[in-house]
Amino acid sequence: MCRSKYAYVLFCSVGGRLSAFGVPSHGASAVSRKPVPLPPPKERRRLREARSLSQEDVAARVGVTRETVRSWETGRTDPRGRKRDAYAAFLVAIAREPAPPAEASGAPGPPGAAPDLPAPGPPGPARGDGAGPPPRHRPGAGRPARGPKASTQRSTKPPLAGQVRHSHAPPPGGTSPLNAIAQPAALMNPFGRRHAADGSLLTAERAAGLSADQAFDRLYGHSAPALVRQTYLLTGRRALAQESVERAFHQAWQRWPEVAVDRDPAGWVRAAAYEYAMAPWHRFRPALRRPDPPPASPEDHALLDTLMSLPPMHRRTLLLYDGVGLDLPETAAETEASTPAAAYRLLRARRSVAERLPVLADPDALHQGLDRLARGEKLQPPRVAEVRSGCERRTRFWTRTAIAFTVLILGATALTLRTAPTAYEPPEAPPETVRGVPPRMGPGPLTDDRLALRDLLREAPRTGPHRTHPELR
Prior knowledge:
The protein is mainly α. Among the domains are: about 55 residues, 434 Repressor (Amino-terminal Domain) (Orthogonal Bundle); about 170 residues, PhyR, sigma-like (SL) domain (Butyryl-CoA Dehydrogenase, subunit A, domain 3), CATH 1.20.140. The chain has 18 helices and no strands.
């Protein structure tokens, strides 16, 4: 029943629109037709590299993010729906094109491949998948419908500056929470660019022969400033934000061999900072019982109060999606939730913000408000040398503490083995007075005759011949 209902919604959403290939799509064919075959992931990457195209170029042509293209080329995920058709047509087109000459390998990509931008651009014409602009919708409009293929209907990544999608009215098939989510025009991430949070940074550093210290310093310089602002939006406390970022980079430096080969080192650090900042035991710290001074601007103060009124997971989902700029599946993965659950959290968070601050009901306005609030606080992370040295001091301290504790346990164990009894010794019974026994009887006092005899025996010689001859009387 749920599947037929979802098929009807999909039929209504794609009816009368043009597909990615310019052919009118109908509901029945959109649901029942077989997916377009694609080459293996390695072949996809080979075709792209043979035409000297970057992942940003492919993402701009297909209308997705760089992370999505990378996941397609690694085989971690496969495109679906219109994205699959567009990606297949793109691969066929570049396969038929002649290979560029060697000297043109460093030429810029197609005109549609614009570089990543650190700040949102001015609103431009709406961009649609078909022959017209998409309808406008409000966040959370319509009742979400459940279906096994709801994840295939997620919104695409927002276009670059100048190609902003305006979203206020329910989208086609607006019964799905994944369709009801609009995205801001440009998003901030730890690197200050939209699609820089990947493993290519450390790959380039390893290729350049940088040491571990230099690679860590470079990652810290790219990630720490914006990450402090993000954790401030997450917690509303300046000291806790700086402490969370410092502790996250401590963990990253301790586990640098693991972080260095991670596909998204900035995401690894961001997740560690968020987990530490949202730990529930912070509420028991005396230094954090009183709130920090509010921002100077009344608008920023109202937005910060609204963010702090959201549940922690809703606040984190809103920050990751509308602030950092992650896709909905990536947001769900980082929050350890399913994609529909993350969509519901995002919709509820947006609805709560819109109820208290109607001016921020638009996703672009919400993003600009978050960016203004984050940049309004002059939060600076500690210097990278202090972070590395502090991490090493902390590691040495805990290592020495663990060694001392181990030695203490071994000494206590040896002392116990040395002094402990080796056999059972029963305890002595407490003394008691014995009653009913007659007293000991001895001789009575000596008479005068006995005393004289005793004196005589003591005075007479004990040896000599007179002892053997009787005395005549």
